[in-house]
Specification:
The protein is α+β, with helices and mostly antiparallel strands. It is built from three helices and six strands.
Length: 151
């Protein structure tokens, strides 16, 4: 009988701890809040590997880094690939690592493009690209960032 009572007490304590853990883990947002935001969220894997386009020669007077394009422009030049997102320590996206130049991963260069020089482009419902006002030549002249840069 003592074994049964001890077992029941242990199960009661563990289930209470499991409930408290699940309650604590979900403290940030309710499922209703999450589902309300769902259409406005983009995952990083839907961006990385995407293309980078240039609209150069740029008209700096018309550039607005807060614009989100609905489609890729027919006259944009495909100049690179999005390798990674760059975040500040407080979690804000500050730029992207772009692979530019080269051919078939030979003689390419990795550079950081600031968010002020980028606009997000929805390619379709699941993938994204970036467009920049900078030309491919301007990007290739930026300082390179290899793995040693981040250490």
């Amino acid at each position: 009988m003592k074994f049964l009572t001890t077992t029941a007490a242990a199960i009661a304590l563990l289930s209470g701890a499991a409930y408290a853990e699940s309650h604590t883990m979900n403290k940030g947002m309710s499922s209703e809040e999450m589902s309300g935001m769902q259409g406005n969220l983009i995952r990083s894997r839907d961006i990385t590997g995407g293309n980078i386009y240039s609209i150069a020669p740029a008209d700096d007077d018309g550039w607005d880094s807060s614009v989100m394009w609905n489609e890729v422009g027919a006259d944009w030049n495909d100049i690179g690939e999005i390798e990674d997102l760059v975040l500040s320590k407080d979690g804000k996206v500050t730029g992207i690592v772009a692979e530019v130049g080269g051919f078939l991963d030979i003689a390419d260069k990795h550079v950081v493009i600031s968010v002020e020089d980028l606009n997000l482009v929805a390619v379709d419902d699941r993938t994204y690209a970036y467009v920049t006002r900078l030309s491919e030549e301007e990007l290739e002249n930026l300082p390179g960032v290899d793995e040693g840069f981040w250490n």
